[in-house]
Amino acid sequence: MPQHKQSLKTDVLVAGGGCAGLAAALAAARKGCDVILVERAPFAGGIVTAVGLPYLDGLVDPDSGAIVTRGIPVEILSRMGGCAPDAQRATDISPRLREEHSPAAVLIPSTEQFKRVADAMLTECGPRLRILYTGTVCDATVREGRIARVSVAAKTGLYPIEARSYIDATGDADLAWLAECAVEKSTPLMPMTLHFRIGNVHPHPSMKAQMQTVCEQAARSGELKAFYGPHFECHYAPDEIDVHAIRINGDASDAFDLSRAEIEGRRDSWLMFERWKKDVPGFEDAYFVTSGPFIGVRETRRLQGRYRLHEDDILGHTVFDDAVATGTWYMDVHPNSATPGDFQDYKPYWPGPYQIPYRSLLPIEVNNLLVAGRCHSATRQAAASSRVTATAMSMGQAAGHAAALAQSRRQDVGDLHGETVGNALAENGAGIYIPERRPAGTR
Ligand SMILES: Cc1cc2nc3c(=O)[nH]c(=O)nc-3n(C[C@H](O)[C@H](O)[C@H](O)COP(=O)(O)OP(=O)(O)OC[C@H]3O[C@@H](n4cnc5c(N)ncnc54)[C@H](O)[C@@H]3O)c2cc1C
Questions:
Q1: Among 117, 130, 285, 410, which is least packed, fewest CB within 10 Å?
Q2: Half-sphere exposure of 344 (CA within 13 A, CB side)
């Protein structure tokens, strides 16, 4: 029988190896589960490696300076030489990775190195963690309220895979949607952004303003539909700029619309590059280094799960008895129109550390599925905060631990109490951030 016709069996299947999925696969395998990680790119890391985004946000609370996402996010940063393994505070992070303009933003030293660190961490788990890069989860069979198996499209055909627990870390809630769980999509969806790098640039103090003027002219003439900033940083060399400026509206959970967005993102990045080269001093000898490789997707489907994290929970710091992760980033909603000079058209408000409950990872309809990362169950405003990288990793780590607990107890993840998951995370140096002094009356 051809290999791909045989059903593969495992304890835990993780769909998507981005921020949440990488952490989920590591957490479950380290607790002794057999895991298959399916990632459609040829590497893990998601937004960091597939889009080239060099930020680990949600790690540091800007007010207290405390690191609020313990466990795998800190471990990854430490494996990249960014901090000690037991880092507790922003001051424990290498100063070269701290941004002067934003005390909460932490830089990832190199998105290429991230690929290698992710490979190393995953392969260190040994044969119990099977990695299937370039595979896409594309179908699910549900029986009696449980996923019975999923189909994975890979080079060798369609693989049926059966697991006790499934973790949807696709960012787009692909698996929850395929399993016919309730999901929602807001109107409008936040725009997508293609990141790109330009080399042999000679930055000078007025360059950013001149780049912005060029973009504004292109927007006025209708050549650019939208853009932001433009912002750039010299992450890799003093003469190489990493640009975030592209704003493409669309629905990335629609394969054809996503393809259109990829094409428009490349068109807009080349338009900017060629105009800057022509009109902005410092770009005379510049060349286009690289883009993407994938366009960055901020928002598509979100689970409508057993609890929907609400912006009032974030602003009011609701205490959940099933809290499993901590967020702290502001509600980072990108507008769909041009915002010259800035990311948003509003002033960010920093909420301080808030809790994310286990129930926001659980669908109502299916009992052996968890949904972690930017597609967990949250309102649009709340997800605009909980979607950031380090927070997504914490949710992934919680999901991986829950799947391991379910395996050892021969239960479904949907039957576990989140408090048990929270306690297991705490015993492993992860889970929610507990400030040194808490107000009276909270548990
Ligand atoms: C342009 C942009 C800029 C951002 N800027 C910041 C920032 O500065 N700081 C910050 O912290 N956050 C930022 N974010 C938000 C943050 O990066 C994401 O929300 C975060 O990556 C969410 O993690 P995730 O694991 O849910 O998704 P991802 O990291 O996107 O991972 C999802 C993974 O699933 C894979 N996948 C998808 N579908 C399938 C499938 N069917 N089968 C198999 N694999 C699949 C994808 O290839 C991907 O690797 C930004 C997002 C974007 C788009």
A1: 410
A2: 11
The finding on whether 17 has its CB within 6 A of some atom of ligand 1 is yes
- 8-state DSSP, 60: B
The answer for residues whose C-beta is within 8 angstroms of residue 347's C-beta and 6 or more apart is: none
Reduced 3-state DSSP string for 133-151: ECCEEEEEEEECCEEEEEE
pLDDT per residue rounded down to tens, the chain (443 residues): 455 567 899 999 999 999 999 999 999 999 999 999 999 999 999 999 999 999 999 999 999 999 999 999 999 999 999 999 999 999 999 999 987 667 788 999 999 999 999 999 999 999 999 999 999 999 999 999 999 999 999 998 999 999 999 999 999 999 999 999 999 999 999 999 999 999 999 999 999 999 999 999 999 999 999 999 999 999 889 999 999 999 999 999 999 999 999 999 999 999 999 999 999 999 999 999 999 999 999 999 999 999 999 999 999 999 999 999 999 999 999 999 999 998 888 889 999 999 999 999 999 999 999 999 999 999 999 999 999 999 999 999 999 999 999 999 999 999 999 999 999 999 999 999 988 644 444 33
Q: Please say whether the beta carbons of 384 and 331 come within 8 A.
A: yes
> Cβ(193) to ligand 1 under 6 A?
yes
For the chain, list the domains and their CATH numbers: 3-186+301-332+353-427 (3.50.50.60), 196-291 (3.30.70)
Ligand 1 site-directed mutation target among 13, 22, 47, 370, most atoms within 8 Å of CB: 47
Dist. CA 78–CA 86, nearest whole Å: 9
Which residue's C-alpha comes closest to atom 8 of ligand 1?
55
